């Protein structure tokens, strides 16, 4: 006969049966150690449950602004910009670069490109090159 194992209760629920007192002691010790660690982290289970119900507050990242500022500062040091984002928020900097005779390639996931870029495709000259990343997979050796 097995010392422990999964079984089914009278009402059909699955349960894990402990047959040795040593097994119960090991599980109790693990739970006790976990409780001690949580207390050392100064986290009470009740408080944790309350905080998990509260929304997480996040600060908006300024990465977009920093990237645009760097592009403008360095525009005289490059001829082509490859932007790995389909975010339409970058349309203005792309247009600025095109107006300043720069080549711009916008790499984006298939189907994830801001519609703001569509009006740049109607330009008579110096249009951006828009490319879905998936089109490149045939050229990438794994």
UniProtKB/TrEMBL annotation:
InterPro entries for the chain? NYN
List the molecular function annotations (GO) for this entry. Answer: RNA nuclease activity
Pfam families (alphabetical): NYN
- Note the Gene3D superfamilies from the entry: 5'-nuclease
Q: What highest taxon heads this organism's lineage?
A: Bacteria
The reply to whether Coiled coil figures as a keyword in the UniProt entry is yes
Could you list this entry's UniProt keywords, alphabetically sorted. Answer: Coiled coil
Q: Coiled coil where?
A: 24-51
Every copy of the NYN domain together lies at 49-108
Protein name per its UniProtKB record: NYN domain-containing protein
What organism does this protein naturally occur in? Candidatus Kuenenbacteria bacterium CG_4_8_14_3_um_filter_39_15
């Amino acid at each position: 006969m097995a010392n422990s194992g999964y079984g089914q209760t009278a009402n059909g629920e699955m349960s894990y049966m402990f047959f040795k007192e040593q097994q119960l002691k090991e599980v109790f010790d693990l739970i006790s150690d976990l409780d001690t660690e949580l207390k050392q982290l100064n986290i009470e289970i009740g408080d944790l449950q309350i905080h998990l119900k509260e929304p997480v507050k996040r600060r908006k990242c300024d990465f977009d602004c920093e990237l645009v500022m760097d592009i403008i500062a360095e525009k005289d040091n490059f001829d082509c910009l490859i932007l790995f984002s389909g975010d339409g928020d970058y349309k203005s900097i792309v247009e600025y670069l095109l107006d300043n005779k720069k080549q711009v390639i916008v790499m984006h996931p298939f189907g994830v490109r801001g519609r703001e870029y569509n009006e740049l495709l109607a330009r008579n000259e110096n249009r951006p090159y828009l490319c879905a990343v998936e089109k490149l997979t045939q050229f990438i050796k794994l």
